[in-house]
Amino acid sequence: MVPVNKDFVNNMFSVEGKVALVTGATGALGSVLAKAYGYAGAKVFMTGRNEAKLKALEEECKAEGIECAYGVADPAKEEDVDALIKAAVAKYGEINILAVCHGYNKPQNILDQSVADWQYIMDADCKSVYVVCKYVAQQMVDQGKGGKMVVVTSQRSKRGMAGYTGYCTSKGGADLMVSSMACDLTAKYGINVNSICPTVFRSELTEWMFDPESAVYQNFLKREPIGRLAEPDDFVGFALFLSSEASKYMTGGNYDCSGGYLTC
Ligand SMILES: NC(=O)c1ccc[n+]([C@@H]2O[C@H](COP(=O)([O-])OP(=O)(O)OC[C@H]3O[C@@H](n4cnc5c(N)ncnc54)[C@H](OP(=O)(O)O)[C@@H]3O)[C@@H](O)[C@H]2O)c1
Fold first, then answer.
1. 122-to-57, 86, 103, 138 alpha-carbon distances in Å
2. Phi and psi (nearest 5°) for 76?
């Protein structure tokens, strides 16, 4: 019988001392995950396009004793991402964890949507994932120590919705990209790549859905056995798990984290 190693069990959820790069760090989930990695002892390099928000988040995190820095970048722009990775490595020496938390949507019926608007969503939610993961993967390969990539997509990656030909297509593409990247990167380079697929959680954009009296909220609850919509911190445990050695045999997965949305 192969024994289980005690040190492994005691430390398997740890990300202490790791360097985590968080995209969309200015957003609801990205800011929470950036802090969570920091509370767990990781050094956090945060990115987004909005420098004022990044600066404010950096100050907030530093006040909490978190080791962190930021770099401004548009995740869909190759030259931005190239510079971002170089800045993160110049600051912390390496990148061990990537959490992809940026995203965008502008729901529109396909009949009203311009091709340019559709392309914008595809670039923001799909091309950007490719660019960021490609550059981080190369950095992790060069380091020769493996790594963990966690991409936040959506339950909309698996099912359509009116007005969502851009969002569903890009999130579906991102989920398949995650599975394909695992085939390229895990066995040979020790880089685990997984995605988390949430339903609605609280953010500036979704706040309006959280009125318990509203029809939208009530309709959601019919599909949520957990009995409520999500808060950003509901995803912290799973993201840390996928970033740690505890998930060492998981790769290429698109994991439901939706309060049971798929069960009824
Ligand atoms: N909230 C939900 O209910 C929900 C449900 C399922 C899945 N998701 C997904 O989960 C992830 C995080 O969601 P969230 O609610 O935390 O998002 P959020 O609060 O709206 O923030 C996302 C961040 O993405 C960046 N962003 C916005 N437009 C962009 C664009 N065109 N190109 C590149 N970056 C852009 C913004 O940062 P900068 O302006 O600084 O670049 C923003 O702070 C997203 O991928 C989202 O699609 C959200």
1. 27, 26, 10, 23
2. -90, -5
**Active-site option among 37, 135, 167, 255:** 167
Gap between the Cα atoms of 28 and 207, Å rounded: 11
Task: Concatenate the DSSP letters of all residues of 52-70 into one string.
Answer: HHHHHHHHHHHHTT--EEE
Do residues 155 and 258 touch, judged by C-beta distance below 8 A?
A: yes
Nearest CA residue ID for atom 18, ligand 1: 27
Q: Which residues contact 27 (CB under 8 A, 6 or more apart)?
A: 48, 101, 102, 103, 203
- Does 167 participate in catalysis according to the annotation? yes
Q: What is the pLDDT along the chain (264 residues), one digit of tens a residue?
A: 788 999 999 999 999 999 999 999 999 999 999 999 999 999 999 999 999 999 999 999 999 999 999 999 999 999 999 999 999 999 999 999 999 999 999 999 999 999 999 999 999 999 999 999 999 999 999 999 999 999 999 999 999 999 999 999 999 999 999 999 999 999 999 999 999 999 999 999 999 999 989 999 999 899 999 999 999 999 999 999 999 999 999 999 999 999 999 898
As a whole number of angstroms, the distance between CA 106 and CA 111 comes to 14
Closest atom, ligand 1, to C-alpha of 198: 6
